[in-house]
Design a protein that fits this description.
6 helices, alpha+beta
Length: 189
């Protein structure tokens, strides 16, 4: 449990417990509070650490054997990892390229942009119909679920039916007659 602790002291403690090396941007300043009802292991400590950074507007960006602690606004310009469905903490900042199959990626940008925080990034690359996202793992997973619900084939597909025992013009006449009886004004072409 930490109460009103300087974030730099917290980073030093995390370094000591996890064996990770950190370089801290001079702009990283905050007083933090962490409350836990039980002791946490090294892996969980790092997840809590990433959550604390996110809450205060900072990110951890790995660069070789060093992890840079920088403001969120600068993090997306650093060497953040690509998200490839490996297990990463939900507060880890990553970049993901998502292939869109059925709708133009550019049409999804205005729909999804409000779901990306200000320090995140979203762009459509029309040449390959992909979206490029930079955000936290948890939010990217949520956006992927939304994309999977929206990126579906159009139901107005054309189906070609080969007629063996009737002429196409006679079938069209019969269907149009049936539609008129139902009160449907649409015609089959």
């Amino acid at each position: 449990n930490l109460k009103n602790t300087d974030i730099r002291n917290f980073i030093a403690s995390v370094s000591k417990k996890t064996g990770k090396n950190f370089v801290i941007d001079p702009r990283v300043k905050a007083k933090i509070n962490v409350i836990s009802s039980k002791s946490i292991d090294e892996k969980e400590l790092y997840r809590v650490f990433l959550s604390v950074l996110q809450i205060h507007g900072y990110s951890a960006v790995s660069s070789g054997n060093v992890i840079k602690i920088v403001p969120d606004v600068n993090a997306k310009q650093g060497p953040i990892p690509m998200y490839l469905k490996r297990r990463l903490p939900s507060d880890q900042l990553v970049t993901k390229v998502i292939k869109i199959k059925n709708v133009p990626a550019a049409q999804l940008v205005p729909i999804l942009r409000p779901l990306i925080p200000q320090q995140g990034h979203m762009a459509a690359y029309t040449a390959t119909n992909t979206l490029i996202l930079t955000d936290r793992v948890g939010n990217i997973e949520r956006i992927e679920k939304i994309i999977n619900k929206v990126d579906i084939p159009d139901n107005q597909e054309i189906e070609v039916i080969t007629l063996n025992y009737a002429s196409a013009s006679e079938v069209v006449r019969i269907i149009n007659a049936l539609n008129q009886k139902k009160g449907d004004s649409g015609n089959v072409a």
